[in-house]
Prior knowledge:
The structure is a homotetramer of 346-residue chains. Chain A has 346 residues and is α/β, with parallel strands linked by helices. Chain A contains twelve helices and 13 strands.
Amino acid sequence: xxxxxxxxxxxxxxxxxxxxxxxxxxxxxxxxxxxxxxxxxxxxxxxxxxxxxxxxxxxxxxxxxxxxxxxxxxxxxxxxxxxxxxxxxxxxxxxxxxxxxxxxxxxxxxxxxxxxxxxxxxxxxxxxxxxxxxxxxxxxxxxxxxxxxxxxxxxxxxxxxxxxxxxxxxxxxxxxxxxxxxxxxxxxxxxxxxxxxxxxxxxxxxxxxxxxxxxxxxxxxxxxxxxxxxxxxxxxxxxxxxxxxxxxxxxxxxxxxxxxxxxxxxxxxxxxxxxxxxxxxxxxxxxxxxxxxxxxxxxxxxxxxxxxxxxxxxxxxxxxxxxxxxxxxxxxxxxxxxxxxxxxxx
Amino acid sequence: xxxxxxxxxxxxxxxxxxxxxxxxxxxxxxxxxxxxxxxxxxxxxxxxxxxxxxxxxxxxxxxxxxxxxxxxxxxxxxxxxxxxxxxxxxxxxxxxxxxxxxxxxxxxxxxxxxxxxxxxxxxxxxxxxxxxxxxxxxxxxxxxxxxxxxxxxxxxxxxxxxxxxxxxxxxxxxxxxxxxxxxxxxxxxxxxxxxxxxxxxxxxxxxxxxxxxxxxxxxxxxxxxxxxxxxxxxxxxxxxxxxxxxxxxxxxxxxxxxxxxxxxxxxxxxxxxxxxxxxxxxxxxxxxxxxxxxxxxxxxxxxxxxxxxxxxxxxxxxxxxxxxxxxxxxxxxxxxxxxxxxxxxx
Amino acid sequence: xxxxxxxxxxxxxxxxxxxxxxxxxxxxxxxxxxxxxxxxxxxxxxxxxxxxxxxxxxxxxxxxxxxxxxxxxxxxxxxxxxxxxxxxxxxxxxxxxxxxxxxxxxxxxxxxxxxxxxxxxxxxxxxxxxxxxxxxxxxxxxxxxxxxxxxxxxxxxxxxxxxxxxxxxxxxxxxxxxxxxxxxxxxxxxxxxxxxxxxxxxxxxxxxxxxxxxxxxxxxxxxxxxxxxxxxxxxxxxxxxxxxxxxxxxxxxxxxxxxxxxxxxxxxxxxxxxxxxxxxxxxxxxxxxxxxxxxxxxxxxxxxxxxxxxxxxxxxxxxxxxxxxxxxxxxxxxxxxxxxxxxxxx
Amino acid sequence: xxxxxxxxxxxxxxxxxxxxxxxxxxxxxxxxxxxxxxxxxxxxxxxxxxxxxxxxxxxxxxxxxxxxxxxxxxxxxxxxxxxxxxxxxxxxxxxxxxxxxxxxxxxxxxxxxxxxxxxxxxxxxxxxxxxxxxxxxxxxxxxxxxxxxxxxxxxxxxxxxxxxxxxxxxxxxxxxxxxxxxxxxxxxxxxxxxxxxxxxxxxxxxxxxxxxxxxxxxxxxxxxxxxxxxxxxxxxxxxxxxxxxxxxxxxxxxxxxxxxxxxxxxxxxxxxxxxxxxxxxxxxxxxxxxxxxxxxxxxxxxxxxxxxxxxxxxxxxxxxxxxxxxxxxxxxxxxxxxxxxxxxxx
Lengths: 346, 346, 346, 346
């Protein structure tokens, strides 16, 4: 059994990691790190785990952890892992980082959007961007995986085939994304109180959300061009789910058949990406609790734009599920191990 | 007291008309039309009206109604009013039509998008498009007002100042709109069941929603150009509210100050349109139950696009409230009579 | 115009007071007290009030306030008013206290359930328990009104006629109450985050909730007996509304007609209490945004128990609305002034 | 592999059966019966099953089904199975009936509460009431299992230990239950529309709900007394979950230790019943998606009543999960096979 440690196990993404790993046959969790709940039973923080997890929360000691486990998941604030990582740690343990610390290759871009200094830029080059459907082979060989953001996973996978195949004008991309509230984390803030979110919808981080450069970088690699785009996130009154509605202008001569062929080319063999039947729009509820990404598109001939849509569960494919998928690749497990989660409806 | 009749008084928009008119000092409702609930007490259909409305639902007899009342609100399916309207009726009574029958000036466009034959095109020319902030003077003189759609009210008012002032490229407009579920009406459909809508978000009517040509026509008048745009509606798990997030490319040299000045020019004196302070994004909850439209914008210098946002209560400014505002203008009442509704939070 | 000051104007009950008083013809708010937001525009705290309230939040200085206004509403934590009140203040200004400080006549009971020392027990005797339907005449003469709690208002009015008429065994009462989340206030606590409340229901404060002795005391006055009962509150995923489902054993020989007659006797002339038609169960949505209490009952002949049900909007009749109703009585205004709020549906 | 047929596979309980059986190692579904969707792909009805279930919906032909499969689940309206069942069928196939047809031993009681004639009373005696924790040994030998109702499963398991041990006055029981909306089924009814359920709570079926006699019968067996009780269901704005809050008077001399010992006696070894730590109240969210029942209690010394609380997922332990648990027992599989579902939070 591979031994797992989690730093930040009591946030929503950490909790989801625990839920998923409970059903994974090849691993056991050895360390439930949680600075806020040290010495408290894990199930006292998440009562759903009562009689399932008996462990006690421990401090977030990455040095000690590196001695005891084979892989560490860090579900921690931006800058945390970057401030601690060193070669000694990485030589002992593999790391899947759910924060943004190693997602962006250009350290200046990182520091500009995140407004913090990067404390260990020397590992950025080595880190593999863990979007399995795109970087599968690199992930298999990685010591350090930068697990993609929730909005970015959804946005990139929704647009990727058309970017890669050169079917759209890369300067015309607009992504209007909608997320459930678990994406905002478990911190006690007035803005995330039930009464503030319920019966309400708003945009936030307009033209300034940190996932923007991550999407731009990855779609840049796909298309071979520098990409600048609009990304607007919205907060939706639901627990889980992200829907990305993306708009782009089709290049001349691009037909519906060509667009569908592009999606099929990249996703026909992908277990976790489902290209829906024509005229079926993705709905977040249909992927809830699962690692699926549902994608589809509509072409508007009047404007010559394609409307691409993608739906994920932000805590699964957008965080913990993808992290487990990365771990599976890194350790040579079956890629779907622990992830054959059937979406729950209703 | 002006006498009011409502045809379709037991749909959600009809119910909201009743709620608002209960607080209107100049009118009394004489006819609660409802084909589905004839002879039933109105409060048995909407128990919130118990001990407030004692009337009984009546058949939808527009001829009889025209004899008895001064103004008729029709909150009816598409094609209903068009199939019944004639000069005899219009000579006796004013009509505010909440359906789409007289909103679109080009009957071919209407028939193409609505897939029904228009039975009384002779009144289309006369009908005034009842967006009060834009067509106030015409509404005052009208016999027949076409009350704008919910999505269209929100979308047009969000974009109008920039279209009118020529600050944006009219071919670049993309509107991504999100609506609460009351917009889908009170019909018993599986798709609108609690368990299907709750914890879910989806796009629908992509590149084919009927409000598209209405928005295009009105923004065309504003800009003096033919406009073709993308409009994508989404269903959000909340009762009320529409948020429109609209994207457009700024024309060369347009500055933030010019954009703000445009909003102020058209809305500074408008009671029901609130241009929010810089960096404050509209939220549907802040206008709930009221006739307000909250608008604001952000400029993304990286892409040279402006992101315009607008929020309304779809049942008030998007339906019943605007209908009352139109009636107020048509009868020379104070425009805000019955509409000084403070938004309810939370 | 009567001048109003609010201490605690930025909590949910305070915000609702502002909403209601905006529609009140006889008063103007002179002081928006909020220790947390001093010098901030009130509309920056509650954006629904943008362009409606232009005032700035002020400190909670009750001495200064007493000089400037005619009536103070205190929507403050338990013990706050009791620690400050003195004869000098009360000689200058009337007070409607939305906290529990003066609701319970027996100071020992207060201190035992609230776990705090009462700092001004000398005013308890004078304070009038502001349940208008029961204590109307006393309220009219009061300087200091203890505005009832939300659960208690709903519970007492649901049971009152049967207690008063001696139709039920007072030792058999069980109240199972369900509340929306605004009752938990606007404090930033993990337990009240959207993701913790949504898709969830739980009981809390079982056998220990502070509203218990308040209900017992008032039903004791009604019945002329000492009353001990069970009260269990539950948290429901909705913003507003309390539903109380109360159970009691009928005394021998009590018939359905007698029970209905009791409700009619006390409520037939009460504007804000609606006794629903037979077989219609109260629903919180039907009173949302209004000052109504909807009540009804079912008799179970198999067990000889009566099931009494009552629904209110916890922020209106359960807090701010009732406070305004009390103020109306204290100042000789029409009792319904500012309170003719039609429930909003959906 | 044991072959499974489902009649009524496109209701919510049917859909949940499919979700759970997808993860069951010993069975395969051979027949997706759905009278409403014959010849339609199952995934077109439930898009969450896209690329997971490829089968087509078939007619509800129980005779044909009995030839092809080893076990039939009937998730059908009351009276359906009773009208078709015969010895020929039962001699070929085992049946788990999710309807109420064989739950109640007294056919008069069934006909009185369900208002339909029972067409095959000859099988009532043989049918085993499939509450596994209570009737495990009988279920193992059964051909026909009557799967308990959702409210009843939750209510009975919450009260059972105290009834069985004689710790409470059986005539004092009051059950106040709260259910998510999936319990109302997938039929298109106005009452279950999003806008009618959302932001609302109501009691329904007061003193007349059909689960009442089922609870009374089972608690009667447990206590050895005839039991008459009050059961009041409420509709809560959430998809899944039932919370039962039950009240009873403790017999003289019963202590907290005795009550806890009773729960431990019956549930310490039960995988699916979790007796929570003292002072922890069950929450439906903590069992969502799982087969768990969380129970706990509080004693109110002031009234000498015990407040018992239980939470389940109505579609799992209250329907499909318990049905699979019964099947596991009937076929000698591991009782937990397919049911090791970790609750999903948030």
